[in-house]
């Protein structure tokens, strides 16, 4: 699974699947099992049954939480940038106002 995710990061996910003779649906199933915690403590070749309704719900909620956390960090970064831009514009405005006052004297 880690090899596939590394291949995806490098833009070679499809090539990895073809080379290994795997289907993307199998990767989806593995991810669901991983997210539900079913694969923890299992070795290669150990049997893994189907997800229970509770495990599937846990996996779904973990994926939603990861998406929400990513959106939150993006929003926080955007707000930080907006705050800095606002402070810069205020500083420029004050500087322009003080320059205008100096010229009027």
Low-confidence sequence ranges: none
Based on secondary structure, the structural category is mainly alpha
- The helix content, as a percent range, equals over 70%
Distance between the amino and carboxyl termini: 73 Å
Compute the CA-based radius of gyration.
26 Å
Element order, helices and strands?
HHHH
User: Average pLDDT across residues?
Assistant: 84
The count of strands amounts to 0
Count helical runs.
4
Largest sheet: none
Strand percentage: under 5%
User: What is the general shape?
Assistant: elongated
Return the domain count: 1
Which secondary structure elements does this structure contain, and how are they paired or packed?
Layout: H1 2-9, H2 13-20, H3 24-36, H4 53-104
Short synopsis of the structure:
Helices cover 77% and strands 0% of the residues.
Describe this structure in words.
The structure is a single chain. With 105 residues, the chain is mostly helical. The protein has one domain. The protein has four helices and no strands. The longest helix has 52 residues. It is elongated and about 80 Å long. The N and C termini lie far apart (73 Å). The model has no long low-confidence stretch (mean pLDDT 84).
């Amino acid at each position: 699974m880690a090899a596939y995710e590394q291949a995806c990061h490098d833009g070679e996910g499809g090539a990895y699947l073809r080379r290994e003779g795997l289907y993307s649906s199998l990767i989806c199933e593995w991810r669901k099992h991983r997210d539900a915690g079913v694969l923890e403590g299992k070795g290669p070749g150990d049997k893994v049954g189907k997800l229970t309704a509770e495990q599937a719900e846990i996996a779904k909620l973990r994926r939603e939480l990861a998406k929400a956390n990513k959106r939150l960090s993006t929003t926080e970064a955007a707000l930080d940038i907006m705050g800095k831009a606002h402070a810069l514009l205020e500083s420029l405005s004050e500087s322009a106002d003080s320059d205008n006052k100096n010229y009027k004297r």
